[in-house]
Each structure stands twice: as structure tokens, then as C-alpha cells.
Amino acid sequence: MATFQKPENALKRAEELINVGQKQAALQALHDLITSKRYRAWQKTLERIMFKYVELCVDMRKGRFAKDGLIQYRIVCQLVNVSSLEEVIKYFIHLSTERAEQARSKAQALEDALDVDDLEADKRPEDLMLSYVSGEKEKDRSDRELVTPWFKFLWETYRTVLEILRNNSKLEALYAMTAHRAFQFCKQYKRTTEFRRLCEIIRNHLINLNKYKDQRDRPDLSSPESLQLYVDTRFEQLKIATELELWQEAFRSVEDIHGLMCMVKKTPKPSLMVIYYAKLTEIFWVAESHLYHAFAWLKLFTLQKTYNKNLTQKDLQLIASSVLLAALAVAPYDHKHGVSHMELENEKERNFRMTSLISFSLDPKRDNREVLTRSSLLSELTAKGIMSCVAQEVKDLYHLLEHEFFPLDLASKVQPLLTKISKLSGKLASASSVPEVQLSQYVPALEKLATLRVLQQASQVYQTMKIEVLSGMIPFCTISVVEKVAVEAVKRNFITMKVDHMKGAVLFSDMDLESDRLRDHLATFSENLNSVRSMIFAPVKKTSKLGDSLPGLAEIVDKEHKRLLARKSIIEKRKEEQERQMLEMEREEESKRLKQQKIVEEAEQKRLASEYTRREEQRIRREIEEREREEAKALLLEAEKRSKKKGKKPVIEGDKVTKQTLIELALTEQLRERQEMEKKLQKLAKTMDYMERAKREEEAPLIEAAYQKRLEEERNLHERDQLQEIELSRQHHTGDLQEKNRLSRMITYKDIFQEKILKQREAEHNRLVTEREERLRGILEARRQERERLRKLLYYLRTEEERLTQLHEEEEARKLEEAERKKREEAERRAKLDEIAEKQRQREREAEEKEKARREALLRRSVEPAARHIEPPPAARPVEASAAPTTGRYVPRFRRETPSAAPPPETDRWGRQDERPPPASDKWRGEDRRPGSFGPRSSTSWTSSRASRGSER
């Protein structure tokens, strides 16, 4: 590594090495100086050194050296003089572009030179030599040898500069300029692959800009200048993508622009948004997304009408017609009918992306598949007044296809309108983003829509139709196309029809297809089974009384116990399932590890195989080079044999012969032979010129004499023909006079015959007029009678309707009176039942008072003196427990066990007192609940209890 005291010394040393032809050494010397840490301060000499360094890198196509040098120079200039770095980079790009253009022009000139065939040799030496190794054309070989290396280096230059300037706020203008030049390079030379890579590079730069926000000198996208540069770059990318017809990359560019707008939360200028929506219309049309294409046209129309003040009425009419035709081109049925759940979810996500690109804000958590629809689009067009701006042909087409009902001649009425619409086109003078509007692109979609409308309207009118009739109804489509459209419409559940080719008929009906009947058969079967089960096992109503729910407590406890046991078993199963999943996960991880190991082994095998292939290729290449060297020697011997007649021998060593040397030798020989041939041709042309002049001087008087002779012959011939024509005319006139004299005696008979014919025709005419008048009178009389009959029929129907209405009103009045009568009878019956229930309750109260008095008397008789302290007999305890009045209600235990005075003994109907105690086994029943009791409580009938329950309700 050479060291220099001053940078000027390195520059002088590099120039000396260049002068002696050692460019590689000069480049290495300058590279060592630039990458040295001794020269970190910027000075003007370093800029001159970088200019020379860049020149050497371009001459030698050393992209890696150029990148290293520019990175080091950026470190030096970053804080001191950024403009110097800009000048160096511009010079670098200029040199690379200039050398690429020179190589391209040189290849073009070489192609033009080689296009001239040799007049003596059957085959050129270079063609003979290159035919052994390849079958390429001359242009392909020249491009590969001259143009392609320089284009690769130019592409590498753009990549290097973009990588050096990325995400730097001080160099963002130069970054944008480089990106634009790279885009133009891809556009000029149709480099689609490089364009995709360039877009990916710029996209990654923006991603890294948002990812590493703590980077020094990071561009601020909130700044208007920076944002404008980034937005202009993306819009240029979108333009080039559409011009190269890279529609997928164009859509990604649109997403980049939308992401940038969402990132900075700012909307670009209307002129840029017009370009944005114009490109979206092209992208959606190519992608056959007609719905979003129409919405993009709507947005474009709104922007143009709002912000473009120079828009003429004709331009506005063309754009509005495009909007309406794009809306009509959308299929009138739903494309999601019959798709799976996964497809619906994917469609939902896709719709959310598309609507966000068209600036329609949606909620991603909702189901937005039906937000942007054809009907909503047409209603919005009507609401915004676009219908008033469209052309009359487009407006008539819209009313025919959307609002009219002509099943038989709809297509015949639509066809002339489509012909007129296909001729409507024009250039927009004041809308640069949409230079031209072509309405003919919508004609196929409109023909399909017309076909669908004809099928839809025919299915509403007819049940069966011949295929020939249907084909005649749609003149612009063949029957195969109509059938294809019908199949798609039936698939989307738009119409229901069948085509029977054996009978040659089309069947329209409301019947479902077999697939539709089989689609939901399980759900229908389940619903029917549920209805049958509900009829067999009626649902049990919930009880509201505590007494009714007590017997089921044990069953409820049992069910709850079983439910808890089932829950415990479910928890155990879940634990087992979790353990099984853990084992499966471990097993999967082991399988993944083995798979990864297998992949590594396969990669190693591939590497060994590729190494073996590379060695084989090297061996084959060596053999090819040896064979080429031998063939070159043979060609050299042939060149020596051809040059022996000149006495000259090419001075080339046989061991150092190369393909390039032979090409140069062949070109030299060809140029020499061509120059000799040109001299011969010049001499031959001069000789032929003298001979031609001499021949023309000799033949001039002979030509004049022949011309005079021919003129005299033609004059004589003309006079002879004229005399013959006069003689023929005289003869024809004489014959015509004789014929006239012969036919003049028949004029009288001709007049008589003519008058007879005229009289017959007049009589026939009068007869026909009379018959026609009689027929018209008969028709008028029949129509008058028909009107009279219809008038009488209408009068009868009206009177009959009035009679039926009167009968219906009388029936309603009778039913209303009957209902009122039933209500009065029901009220009287309830009043009687209430009176009976009141009497029954009075009797029960009296019986209870008597029972209470009887038990008190019985208790007083049975009680012993307190001083004896004798326990009451066991049979008296149930009486105490049942001392409470038994009214049929539930009595708590603490009430039943409370001691009270014993009621008087019950007297039967013969006046005797019943001193028998109640049975001890029935503790829950009072005396009034015993089945064998004959007291007043037991005499309560079920009718009275039912009446009392009704009154309580």
C-alpha cells in the first residue's frame, strides 16, 4: 500500500500510471488514498481525485471499487460539503450512461456494417468461425459482447448510488433524481426485471426508514419538501409500471402510495390524485375488477370536475359516459354465491384493501362484502347528477338495460346504441392524466349485460323457448356465447333455466337445481326432526308454587350430582387431552428437527453435486477452448492460403491465437477485399455510363422516325372507322322508318283494347272499395257490441261486488252481536258463580266456628287438674298438633306444636260427639284432610274449591 504526503502526489502518480497503460495500478493507488484514515478532512483536491477515481472505475467497469470509494467520500463530505458528493455522483452516473450509449451506438453501427453481403465470398470468415460455437444472430452477439456488459454496469451504478444515498435528509433530492433516472433507464430499454428489483429496493428503503427511527440524518416525512419528493418518486414508479404493462408491480406501487399517505396522514395535490385514480382505473380494468374500476372512475370524475377548471363540456361528457358505462359493465349478480367460508374471508380482506385504496373508509371488524355494490354505485351516480352529463346514447342504453322491459327486442334496440358508443372517443385537451377516453372497451361487457337482461326478462314471461328463437333475439352473440353466459348466471343464482339440446329448447322455471336441493338437506332434516320431537314431547311448564316443586327436589339434587360428576370427568379428559397435545408437540418438534437435519444434509449433497457440476463445466470449458484453439489454427491456415496470392503472410503466432484475434484478422481482410471490390465497381459503373450515353445518342433519330410513322397509320385508321360508322347509322335509320310504317295500321285496335282494359279495372276497383266499406262497417258494429257486452259485464261485476260487500258487513255485524251476547252471558254466569262461592265460604266459616267450639269443649272435658302432674295420653298429641284451624293451607311445624286450648268434641249429624283421636301415623294431615272424615270440612265439593280458586285468580 503506497503512502503519499499530499493527495496531489497520489493524483500525479495515478496520471503517470494511466499514461503508461497501467490503469489497474492507478485505480489501486487512488483507492488506497481514499480509504486511508489520514485524509478525513475534505479539501478540493479530494474532489478532483474522486473525479479521476470515478473515470477509472467506469473505464474498467469496477463497480465494487466505485461503491467503496463513494462510501468513504460520503463519510468525508457528510458534515462539510454535501454538494461535492452530489457533483461526484452526478459525474459518475453521467459517465456510466455515456459509455452505455456509446456501446449501444457502436453495436448498431457494427450491425449495419455487417448487414452488407460480400459480393465475391459465399460466407464471411467470422460467420464461418462463430457457426461452430453458437447459432446466434449478429445482433444478439454484438449486444452480448458490447452492450450487455455496459448495461449491467449502468444498472449496478444506479443500485450503488441508491444504496449510498438512502435515508439521508441531506441527499434526498439526489436520491429522488437517481430513482427517476433509473426508472427512465428501465422504460427506455424495456428492462422489466430490473424495474421490479428497483421498486423492491426503494420499498425496502422506506421500510427501513420507519423501522430505524433513531438513525442520524433521517429524513422527516412530515416536512412538505421531503414528502413531495417521496410522493413524486412513487408516482413516477406507478407511471413507468403502467407503461411497461407490469400490472402487478403497478398495483404494489399504488399500495406504496396509499401506505405513504396513511403514514404521514396527508393527501397529495389533486393533480397527483388524478394520476392516482387514472392508473387505478387501468389496473382494475386489466384485473377484470369492474366494480372497483367503476368506483375509481367515479373518484376521477369528481376530482376532475372539482379541481380542473379548464375542463370543457365535451371532456366532461366523455368522462361521465365512461363512469356510467363502467358501472353498467359490472355484473348484475353476486360473485360470492356458493363460495366457501375461506373464500369469503379472503374476499372480505381483499375488499377491505380495495376500498381503502379507493379512499372508502370501512370498519375491518364488520362484514363489508356488500358495501361497494353495483346498485349502490348506480344510486350514487344518480344522486350526484352524473346522469345529466353523459351522452344521449349512453343515457338511452342505461334506461334500456336497467328500467325497460322488452324481452323480445331488447338486444335489437341495444345493438345500434352499442355501435354508436363504440365510435365515441376523444382526446382530453385539459386532462393530462387521462389523455384519451375509449368507450369501445366497454362494448363486450355491455353485450354480456344485454344478454343477461334478455334471459332474465324472457324467464319472467316464457316457460319454454326454442334455441333458434333465443339465438335470433340476441343478434350480437352466438348461441355458444349465450349458453356460456347463461351457465355463469345460473351458477350465480341470477336466473333459473335449462338447455335441452336434444329437443332444441330452453326451459325457464322457478325450480331449484338438484345441487340446490341437496345442499341443505341435512339442515332441513334436522329442523323436521326437532319439530316432530317438540310435538311428541311437549315442553314442561315451570311450576310457580312451592308445594308443587318440593316432590322434585330429590330429582334435582340427583341431576346436579350427575352434572358435577360429568364436569369432573370432562376436566379429567381435558387434562389428558392437554397432556396428549404436549406429547404431540414434542413429537412434532422432534420431527421438525429431523426434517431440518435432513434439509441440511440435502443442502450439503446439493453443494457437493454443484461442486461436481462446476468441475465438470470447467473441464468441458477447457476442452471447448482446446477445440476452439485447434479450429482457430485451421482457420489461420486458410487465411494464409488466401493471402498467398498477395505475397503477404499474417504475422500471428499459432500458440497465441485467440478468437478475438481471428475476428480482427477477418474484419481486416474483409475491409481490404471490400475496398478492392468498390474500386472495381466504380470503374465498371463509369464504363456502363459511357455505353448507355452512346446508345441513347444513336437511337434518338430512329425513335422519332418510328413515332411519325405510327402517327400517320393511326390517322388513316381513324378516318376509315368514322366512315364505316356513318354508313351503319344511315342503314339503321332507313330500317326504323320501314318498321314505323308497318306498325301504324294497328293504332286503332290498340286504343280499343286499352279502353276495354281500363273499364274492367275500374269496375274491379269499385267492387273492392264497396267490399272494404262493408267489412269496415261490420268490424265497427262488432266492436260496438263488444263494448256494450263489456259495459254490461262490468256493471254486473260491480253490483255483485256491492252485494257481497253488503253480505260481508251484515255477517260481521251478526258476529259482533253474537260476541256481545256471549260476553253478557259469561258475565252473568261468573256473577252467579261468585254468589255461590260467597255462600259456600259463609257455610265454611260457620262450620269452622262450630268445629272450633266443639274442640274447645272437648279440650275442657279432657284436661285433668294441674296438681296431679299426669301426662296426657299419647292419643291426645295429634289433637294438639292439629289444634290449629285447618283451612287447607300449609301450617309450619312451630305453629302445629304450639299448645292451645282443645276444641270441643265434634258432633256428628245424630248429635253424638266423636271422641276418637286422629291416627298417629298421619302427621302432615289435619282432620279435615283425612279421606274418611265426615266433618263439615270434608263436605266441601270440588266445584266450590274450583270456584274459590277462580275467584283468587
UniProtKB/TrEMBL annotation:
This protein's UniProt keywords: Coiled coil, Cytoplasm, Initiation factor, Protein biosynthesis, RNA-binding
UniProt feature, compositional bias: Basic and acidic residues: 811-871, 906-931
Record bears the keyword Protease: no
Comp. bias regions, Low complexity: 933-953
Source species, domain of life: Eukaryota
Localization in the cell: Cytoplasm
Transmembrane segments: none
Coiled-coil parts of chain: 561-642, 667-697
A GO term from the CC aspect: eukaryotic translation initiation factor 3 complex, eIF3m
Record InterPro entries: EIF3A, eIF3a_PCI_TPR-like, PCI_dom
Family annotation (Gene3D superfamilies): 1.25.40.860, UVR domain
Biological processes per GO annotation: formation of cytoplasmic translation initiation complex; translation reinitiation
Chief location category: cytoplasm
An example Gene Ontology molecular-function term: mRNA binding
Sequence similarity: Belongs to the eIF-3 subunit A family.
Alphabetical list of PANTHER family matching this protein: EUKARYOTIC TRANSLATION INITIATION FACTOR 3 SUBUNIT A (PTHR14005:SF0), EUKARYOTIC TRANSLATION INITIATION FACTOR 3, THETA SUBUNIT (PTHR14005)
Protein's name in the database: Eukaryotic translation initiation factor 3 subunit A
Source organism: Aristolochia fimbriata (White veined hardy Dutchman's pipe vine)
